[in-house]
Amino acid sequence: MLIYKNYIGHVEFDDEAEIFHGEVINTRDVITFQGNTVTQIKKAFHESVDDYLEFCKERNEEPEKPFSGKFNLRIDPELHRQVYISAKQHKISLNQWVVEAIKHHIQE
Fold first, then answer.
1. Is pLDDT above 90 for 7?
2. How far is Cα 34 from Cα 21, in angstroms, rounded to an integer?
3. Under 8 Å between Cβ of 5 and 19
4. What is the dihedral sign for C-alpha 75, 10, 3, 64?
5. Are 63 and 52 in contact (CB under 8 A)?
6. How far is CA 87 from CA 1, 48, 63, 84, 99, in A?
7. What is the DSSP code (8-state) at residue 60?
């Protein structure tokens, strides 16, 4: 993984073409890059992110932020009820309950 200006680049090596290719994975916009060496792929990643940001600026558009901090979650209604009850029992919001559950599983 490569990180630059909060954008995360994922790189793979193509055996047949003998080239590294990558894409930014934490945005819905398509940002790709490629290179023949580690140095080239890092440079291409930085240039692609900078080009994307400049392109957005020229078009007077906000670049897509890597993460907004919001996501929709679809779960079974019975599980929803159980989580809600557990949150109430712990005297925390449903949102805080989910955040703590996610943190707990990330730290395992």
1. yes
2. 4
3. no
4. negative
5. yes
6. 36, 43, 36, 5, 11
7. T
**Residue reference for tokens 């047949």:** 16
Residue 61 Cα distances to 53, 65, 100, angstroms: 9, 12, 35
Name the helix (H) or strand (E) containing 35: strand 32-35
Helix or strand (DSSP H, E) at 98: helix 94-107
Could you give the CA distance from residue 42 to residue 73 in angstroms, rounded to a whole number? 34
pLDDT tens digits along 34-43:
999 999 999 9
Cα separation, 64 vs 52, whole angstroms = 10
Edge-to-edge order in the sheet of strand 7-14: 2-4, 7-14, 19-24, 32-35
Of the pLDDT bands very low, low, confident and very high (cuts 50, 70, 90), residue 64 is confident
Output the six-digit token pair for 69: 């901090």
pLDDT confidence of residue 88: 94
Which residue's structure tokens are 């890597």?
Answer: 66
C-alpha radius of gyration, the chain, whole number = 20
